[in-house]
Automatic annotation (TrEMBL):
Protein name, as recorded: SGNH/GDSL hydrolase family protein
InterPro entries reported for this sequence: PLB1, SGNH_hydro, SGNH_hydro_sf
Ranges of residues in domain SGNH hydrolase-type esterase: 3-222
Lineage of producing organism: Bacteria, Bacillati, Actinomycetota, Actinomycetes, Kitasatosporales
A GO molecular function held by the record: hydrolase activity
Keywords: Hydrolase
Species annotation: Streptomyces cheonanensis
Amino acid sequence: MAAIGDSITRAFDACSVLSDCPEVSWATGTDPKVPSLAQQLAAEESWNLAESGAQASDLPSQARAVTAHEPELVTIMVGANDACAPDVALMTETEDFRADIERAVEIIRESLPDTQLYVASVPDLLRLWSEGSGSALARTVWGVAAVCPSMLADPVAVTTEAGERRDSVRERVVEYNAVLESVCAADVLCRYDGGAVFDYAFTPDDLSKWDWFHPSAQGQAALAALAHERITME
């Protein structure tokens, strides 16, 4: 199997600060302490071609790279960085997001007509803000590192403007997930997670202790469990 997408699939900040930790990736991880999807499916080989910082526009190039490995299953998780812009006005437009996802699937299908696809929903960024905003340390890290500013800037602000900004980001994520579901539904060998990642109630223990945003090793294990449940569902 192979995985494409962004920093969540690279397990960024899951093991150490400001670094990828693919060995605990929910998709292709090899650490037995985090039973990845690849481990649970007993995949003979796995490739993690996701890139930290990737947006939907990067997915077609990742799709081209993945075809060389001829995997039986490709997992896709992308969209958080499209919503996590410096400002809500700079979030990826939903139409552009759709075009990039459709193109990535087309590229895979052109070379791999029999490969299964698993598409994960984008996490609920508003829920992540809610979980971390009560922590002074989390708020400091978000500010210093400029973590997802469209959602996490001024995390304690309770003004109407701040609320509308956060709601706008959440609405865009909902739109992205509708696109992912729609594109996946048009492909007979694609399975969408049914919004499982979006609906998952991340706890502080599920989040990186370095940025209170990316999944920790425990959070990666939770994502793997969600994926396995959905993929093996009748």
